[in-house]
Specification:
Elements (H helix, E strand, L loop, with lengths): L7 E5 L5 H11 L3 E8 L6 H14 L7 E6 L1 H8 L9 H19 L5 E2 L12 H8 L6 E2 L7 H11 L2 H4 L21 H8 L4 H10 L2 E4 L1
Parallel strand pairs: 1-2, 1-4, 2-3, 4-5
Antiparallel strand pairs: 3-6
Length: 218
């Protein structure tokens, strides 16, 4: 479909392979994409952000102009990881729920009609059906997952085609691998997640991250 012919969507983007391809697929359907990157800084270096900026610059060629929100997420991750009442196995689900809450607020600010993610069914612990259900429970906004049935080779083929793969494969300490447990939960229950989230000041954490967020224009 023609560029920018559809509604505005927010895409949660990392420096990895999958999320840039997810954004590209939605752009091809006419969506205008607003990018949101959750940076692990100061626990990751600026190289991670640099990779994301390069990827977004490539993707911005598929639409008229582009905004990239850089959300500082490292302190939230550390806060979750060091809260003794929270089992280590639930950290990944909690990280993703916090990311989605923040993306939800950015979507509202930009009058976006949904959130795009690079999830692929069962590829990693956060992408099991049970964990996706627990993560998505924090928002009512539609979640678009254009790669949900793709295997890795299919995703890589598209990444190579659009020119993001060479950047995504570069070694880099990223947010997703930071403070991650050795054995993450693969079948999280919403009630269990909500129980341990009571030990977090969620509204304050979201507000703080948003207030420190930077916006880059392409």
């Amino acid at each position: 479909m023609p560029s920018n012919s559809g509604s505005k969507l927010v895409c949660m983007i990392s420096g990895g392979i999958d999320s840039p391809v997810a954004a590209y697929r939605m752009m091809r359907r006419g969506a205008r994409i607003v990018f949101v990157h959750f940076s692990g800084y100061p626990y990751t270096d600026q190289e991670e952000i640099g990779h994301v900026e390069e990827i977004v610059e490539i993707l911005s060629g598929y639409q008229l102009y582009t905004k990239l929100y850089i959300v500082p997420f490292g302190k939230i991750q550390k806060g979750i990881a060091t809260t003794l009442e929270i089992p280590a196995k639930l950290r990944v689900v909690l990280y993703r729920r916090m990311m989605l809450r923040i993306a939800d607020q950015i979507s509202y600010k930009n009058q976006a009609k949904g959130i795009v993610t690079g999830d692929s069914f069962g590829q990693v612990a956060s992408q099991t059906p049970e964990n996706l259900f627990a993560i998505h429970d924090v928002t009512k906004i539609p979640i678009y997952q254009p790669l949900i049935s793709f295997d890795k080779n299919e995703i890589i083929d598209i990444a190579e085609k659009i020119g993001t793969f060479e950047i995504s494969k570069l070694p880099c300490k990223d947010t997703c691998s930071m403070f991650s447990p050795k054995n993450p939960e693969i079948k999280a229950a919403v009630k269990d997640v909500e129980r341990v989230e009571k030990y977090l000041k969620i509204k304050s954490l979201v507000k703080g991250a948003l207030s420190d967020t930077k916006v880059i224009y392409f």
